[in-house]
Amino acid sequence: MKVVIFDMDGTLLDSQKDITISINYVREKNYSLPPLSEKFIVESINSEIRNLPEIFYETELYKPSDRIIFEEHYEKQCVQNLYLYEGVYETLQELLACGIKISVATNAPTKFAKKMLEHLEVAHMFDMIIGADKVAASKPDPEMLNEILNHYGFDRKSHKAWMVGDNSKDMMSAEGAGIDSIFATWGFSPDGVHAKTIHMPKEILDIVMLK
Question: Over 90: is that where the pLDDT of 79 sits?
Answer without folding.
Answer: yes
